[in-house]
Each structure stands twice: as C-alpha cells, then as structure tokens.
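Any chance you could type out some protein's one-letter sequence along with its backbone structure tokens so I can compare the two?
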Amino acid sequence: MSTLSPRMLALIAMATAVSIYGGQFVSVRFGLASNLSAYDIAALRFIFAGAVMLPFFIRAGVADCAGLGWGKGIALVLTGGFPLTVLSNIGLIYSPAAHASAIQPGMVAVTATTLAYLGMGARIPGGVLLGFAVVLSGLAAIAIAGSTGAEGASTLAGDLIFVVAGLGWGVFTWLCGRWQVPSVVGASIVSVLSMVYLPVYLLVLNPGLSAAPWSAIVFHGVNQGIMNVAIGLLLWTYGTRTLGVATAARFPPMIPVLGTLIGIPVLGEIPSPLAATGVVAIVLGLLIAATWPSMVRRLAKFRND
C-alpha cells in the first residue's frame, strides 16, 4: 500500500488552506444574506476561535501575553483581530465576495512585503515592484467597476473598506515576522484577546444571534472560528515548513481565484468583465511578486553553471 510523500501531503495541506481562505468571504456574504449581521458573524468567529485557542494561550502564559508581552499582543489584536474582522464584514455588506478575496490578499502582500524590505533597509527588487504595479492596476480596475455602478452603487465603499482591512492585516503579517511570533502563539493571542469584543457586541451592537437558527450558528462559528483560525493556520504552517517559503508563496494568488469561483454558484455573484479583469490582474501581480526572487536565483545559477 503506497503512502503519500511529505511533499504531497504538504501540497494537499496548502491547497486545503487556500480553499478555506478563499471561501471565508463567501461564507460571510452568505451569512449576511441569511439575516445575520456583520457584528453577529464577527461574534461567532471569536466565540469559537477564542474557545479553541484559549488552552494554547493559557499554556503559553497569561501573565506575559503568551510570552510576547502585552504591548505587542495588543498591537497584534488591533492590526489582525476584531477591529479589522468587523470592518471587513461590513465591507461585504456592500461589495461582492470576489472583491474581498482579491483586494484584501493583494493589499496584505503589498503592505507586508514593502514593510519587510523597508525594515531591512533593502531595495525592493524591480520584479517585485512590477508585480505590485500589476496588483494595483487590478485594484484600480475593480474600483472603477464599482464606481461606475457595474457592480452596484455602493460597491466602491466596500472596496475601500477592503483596502483598509488589507493594509491592517499586512501590518499584522509584518509584525509577526519582525517579532518572530510562532503561528499558534499569534493565533491564540488574536483569538483570545479579541473576545473583548463580545461584551461590546452584547451591550451595544444589537445582537441577533438569539434569533438565528442553531444550524447557522454552528456553520458560521465552525467555518469562521475553527476552520479559518485553527485548522487553516495549522495546515498553512505545516505546508510552509515542509515546502519552504518560496514554494508556499505561490499559493496565496489562488485565494482570489477560488473566492471568485466559489461565489458564483453559492451567491450567484458573477463579476463584470472589468471587475473580472481586475481579479486576474491581482492574481498575476501576486504571482510575479511571489516567484520573481526564485526566478532570479535560478537564472543566476544557470548562468554560473
């Protein structure tokens, strides 16, 4: 009986993680269409994620915020926790899931990579800049599609929200790298500390979960809180560790593709030609930025040989 190699298992893990992340925006959009509010879905995310990650947080140490320190922990929550989750959910009220799945990963990649190079005092390679330029052209195409009404009168507002959320998560990604935050530690900090949102939700934001069916609560809680935070993170970490950063970096461009494709049958959201062109440009730009350094190294090795 044959068994899968570690590399094949890692490829399957990365593909599964990308599918989870590509579908998360569709899941939120579906919940919003099912009479759950943006605040309800965010609450479910952190109820489930907080409960799952609390033991990891406690084991890592409550006194010093899982060993990271409370100042850094709060910074991670503000850039990768409940504020941006709520903001992104609100954006999905106005814009299709395809826009979110393209704009947010694109902005995360551009922001985190730019900050990383600036933090090292290094010049951003020309090929990476080219990739970023293609990503930004895709963002512009999606924005124009929204502003002209092709996707709905208020779509541009949602797209701008996705830009802000992507910037924030880009800073979060950069901070995790700069501070060498282990994935499980980062997830536990964000999940547990984001539970501070729950009292605000209950007291101020007109909670609607009491009227929601249990099937919706379980589905969105498991999808948002467990699949995206716990399982997706573990699969992504395993895949990156096994395949290496260079190979793993080629998977994020698939998130916009899957988000768009999943949204068509589930939500009936078919992008306009201009918006679809923008999604394709973002995917192409991310691929260029992700693969350029390895292509340069291979070219240099070929010349030396």
Notes: The chain is about 80% helix and 0% strand.
